[in-house]
Amino acid sequence: QVQLVESGGGLVQAGGSLRLSCAASGSTVSINAAGWYRQSPGKQREMVAGITTGGRTNYADSVKGRFTISRDNARNTVSLQMNNLKPDDTATYYCNAVGIRGGLPYNLWGQGTQVTVSS
Question: If you average pLDDT over residues 34-57, what whole number do you get?
Answer without folding.
Answer: 95
